[in-house]
Amino acid sequence: MPSDDAAKTPTQPETALGSVVGMKLAVLTGGGDAPGLNAVIRGVVRQAAQDGHSVIGFRDGWRGVMANDWMTLTVEGCRGLLTRGGTILGTTRINPFMTEDGRDLCRATLEANDVDALIAIGGEGTLSCTQAMYELGFPVLGVPKTIDNDIGLTEMTFGFATAVDIATEAIGRLHSTAESHDRVMVIEVMGRHVGHIATWAGLAGGSTVTLIPEKPFDINEVCKALQRRHERGKFASIVVVAEGAKPVPGTLDVPDMAFDEFGHIKLGGIGDLVAREVQARTGYETRTTVLGYVQRGGEPSAIDRVLATWFGVEAARAANEKDFGAMVAYQCGEMTRVRIADAVAELKYVNEELYKVAQTFFA
């Protein structure tokens, strides 16, 4: 990796901030996809071009860094990305710490391509890996990405607003079919460790009950709430369940959890379990809808397009200033920077006061 002194030559003027123009930046997208990833890439490339820097993108997250698999990113090549879902770079959950030589391969790739700064766009797993690489001396920065909205020190991550919009629309559609058939409809949304999507969508969609990972539920209380509603002549109810929601120990038998190759619990199925128990205990006809990957696909919402673009531009500015180890964050209507280590120290859980607002409308 060239030193700062080696990079400074008479033919390379400095910017007003004192950083050297002509840097080579790199970008990767890791973990699950989210609406707005391409908008972040576009923002990085546009700001980098204004600062006189070039950008490459590693394919499939950290795998591309280890394999020296990359593509050139230009302003012209990023046209049309603002509204495009997914990520043109591809993404995986592979990281350098999964193999003995992963870190050495990454270092060799960055040195071979004269990369001065690497911007990693990802969630808790990707950012934790990025922080570990920073501690090994890699020139890295982070951009928070997760539809779950569970990254600390940023009020919102891009992709979250789109996921809430999709879930809210689905709840609205389920209301009409529930009313037509006098049914209870259970809708399972994403949320492994936190219930931001469930809480916001449940509140926006007018759910009868919302179950989140932060608040273990008693299935008997859920059934009582539904019965109170039906006794008042309201024969259609919506129960929103985050995929990571858990019952109070001893109140409901849950099948043993399976794990994927990355050590993550394979979630999904809590909606079906809740629906079966509700029907068995109340006698109300109950159906389940699992939104799954629909929540993270397709075009980003207007809010996510703006937020993702802002994240990308600020990340490029941080790279220009060599503010390595920083994560861009949205706080109090402003874009700022925090240390990646602080951001991943703990998950951001659902605000207690907001959940109390949602509970006000539970049956």
Structure description:
The chain is α/β, with parallel strands linked by helices and 363 residues long. The protein has two domains: 4-158 and 300-343, Rossmann fold (3-Layer(aba) Sandwich), CATH 3.40.50; 160-297, Rossmann fold (3-Layer(aba) Sandwich), CATH 3.40.50. It has twelve helices and eleven strands. Strands 3-2-1-4-5 form a five-stranded mixed β-sheet, sandwiched between helices. Strand 7, helix 8 (219-231) and strand 8 (237-242) form a beta-alpha-beta unit.
Radius of gyration, in Å, reads 23 Å
Report strand order across the widest sheet.
3-2-1-4-5
**Roughly how much helix do the residues carry, as a percent range?**
25-40%
Query: How many helices?
Result: 12
Can you give the mean pLDDT? Answer: 91
> What's the β-strand tally?
11
| Overall shape | elongated
Name the poorly predicted regions. Answer: 1-20
Named CATH topology of the largest domain: Rossmann fold
Keywords:
363 residues, alpha/beta, Rossmann fold, 2 domains, four-stranded parallel sheet, 38% helix, elongated
